[in-house]
Structure formats: structure tokens, C-alpha cells
Amino acid sequence: MSRKRVLPLAALMLCTPALAGTAPAVASPQSAPPVRPLRILLTNDDGYGAPGIRLAFQRLTAAGHDVTIVAPLTNQSGTGTKVTSASSVAVRHAEPKVWAVDGTPGDSVAFGLAEVFEDQAPDLVVSGTNFGTNVAGLATHSGTVGGAVAALESGVPAIALSTGGLAAPDPVTTVNAMVPTLEFAVKLIDRLRERARSGPLLPAGLGLNVNHPVVGSDGKGAAAGVTGTFQDPQTVLAPDFTDSGDGTWQVSVKVALRPAARGGDLEAVSAGRIAVSPMNADWNPGPADRAAASALLLGLRP
């Protein structure tokens, strides 16, 4: 994702003890107007029947929201922002409030916005919670993040949710950790609603990539806090190719970590904190990066 450092916004919105669950919220001296439930399009990249999206559906529905799943029919992990160019796509209305699209997360969101929510766009697209972390270079290729990007491209606020650390995810502990992930997601959405009142949940074009760590041997522990972060620029994974001698190459991947960037998502998750990184859909860098690129072009002529 774009590496815009829009941390003041994230810090303003997110980094408070009440949101992290470490202190009670302070009551306002004046009663605030009630906030209405949200219409949420819920997608993912693990598939419409995966534990993460089903737990998300249950928890967001229990919080009072009107949730509809529009997600891939099969596991689409690692598809990033890919969208299908075929002339047709198979779609199953698998259950009430559940649509399964035989394509990528981007295809699912596109179908959901064009057909399922044809009459009125949802208030929010939530993608996840993903099985495993999506920090640093992993986020760039994540189908979970890609689903959120597809929403942002269409002008719909979006949150990507992921649960995991940097080790290979253990099924039991990761699913256990999805419970506190979704408890935090509900708090985050409540915060956005309270601040937005009757306006948009997030500034135009801005999404949030949320990574919740796995805490404790059983995954049920509480995170150490919440940090507004940026996407660490390192790739995390290093591929290796071995020639089989028959025109094919065997592929293996290993974790190859460098020291985490200070203030980045990798540092936060490694410290057992929830990382919330602002992201946009148009890949634009920040002003300093644009200035550096312009300096490289000085004096060049066609």
C-alpha cells in the first residue's frame, strides 16, 4: 500500500486507552445523539465459509449492524488487488445474507457494490478477519487488503482486519485470537460512528489496515495497546528457486526479517500491540517522496 505518513490522523482517532480497552470511556456531559447501526459489506480472501469471516459476521451482527457477506467462493489468499477479466462470473446466494463469488476479493466487492447494494452503497466495507498477519510487504500482496482497496476505489470507507503474528499461524490459537480482534473492530467502528455523526466514517479515500497480534499461548490474551502505524517497507518473505532440471523450478519461501522500522506496523505487532495503518487506494506517495522524485527529473529532456 501507499506509504503516506498520515499518522496524526491515526493518532487522533485511535490511540486512546478507551479504544484499546484499557480504561473506561468518559461520559460526555451532554447526551450525544444516538448513532444508527451501519450497513456493512463483509468480505475476505480466505473464502466465504472461513472462521474469520463467520466470526466477524456474528460479532458485527450482535453489535447491531446490518451485515451482508459478499466474499470469494474459495480461498484467494495472496491475490492482492487482482480483479477477473473474464466475461462471466459464477455467484451463489449460498444463504440469507451470504453471497459467494467465484473470484477474488476485488471481484466480490465489485459484485456486492454493483448488485447486492445496488440501491444504496454500504456505510462500510470490512475485509476479514484474515487468518494471519498483513503487515509490511505482506499487506501489498494481501487479498484481504485488496478487498478493502476495491471499496476505497469506489468511494466506500473500508477496514482490513487481520489476526496473527510473524510465525506460521497456528489454527487453534489464531482462531482464538480472532475473538479479541473482532472485539476491537467493534470498538473501532463505534469510535468512527461517534466521530462521524451523520457524515462519512472516514475521510474520502482513506482506509485502515488493522493487524491484531496473537497474544498468549492460547491466543486469548489482550493486546498491549493500540498504535497508529505505517506500513513497514520491508518484504518479510524471501523466495528461493531450485532448478529441477526439467524446465521447472521448485519454490520455497522463508521469513527474512530486517530490524523493524520505528513506528511501523511490524514493530507494533511484534510488541503485541494492535497496528492500525492508514492506507489509500491510488498508491500516491507523500509530499516528501514526490519532491524527491521531482528532483531526480531536473534537467532531463525528451
Going by helix content, strand content and strand pairing, the class is alpha/beta
The CATH topology is Stationary-phase Survival Protein Sure Homolog, Chain: A
Classify the helix fraction into a percent range.
25-40%
Give me the CATH architecture, please.
3-Layer(aba) Sandwich
**Total count of domains:** 1
N-to-C terminal Cα separation, in Å?
A: 31 Å
- Helix and strand succession? HHEHEEEHEHHEHEEEEHEH
Largest sheet: 9 strands, mixed
Overview of the molecule:
By secondary structure, the chain is α/β, with parallel strands linked by helices. The protein is built from 9 helices and 11 strands. It has a single domain (7-234, 260-296), classed as Stationary-phase Survival Protein Sure Homolog, Chain: A (3-Layer(aba) Sandwich), CATH 3.40.1210.10. Helices cover 31% and strands 21% of the residues. The strands form 2 sheets. It has a 9-stranded mixed sheet with strand order 3-4-2-1-5-6-7-11-8. Strands 9-10 form a two-stranded antiparallel sheet. The chain is globular. 42% of the residues are buried.
Describe the structure in brief.
With 302 residues, the chain is an alpha/beta fold. It has nine helices and eleven strands.
Show the helix and strand layout.
Layout: H1 7-14, H2 17-20, E1 39-43, H3 51-62, E2 66-72, E3 91-95, E4 98-101, H4 105-116, E5 124-131, H5 136-140, H6 143-153, E6 158-163, H7 171-196, E7 207-212, E8 226-228, E9 237-243, E10 249-255, H8 265-270, E11 274-279, H9 287-296
Parallel strand pairs: 1-2, 1-5, 2-4, 5-6, 6-7, 8-11
Antiparallel strand pairs: 3-4, 7-11, 9-10
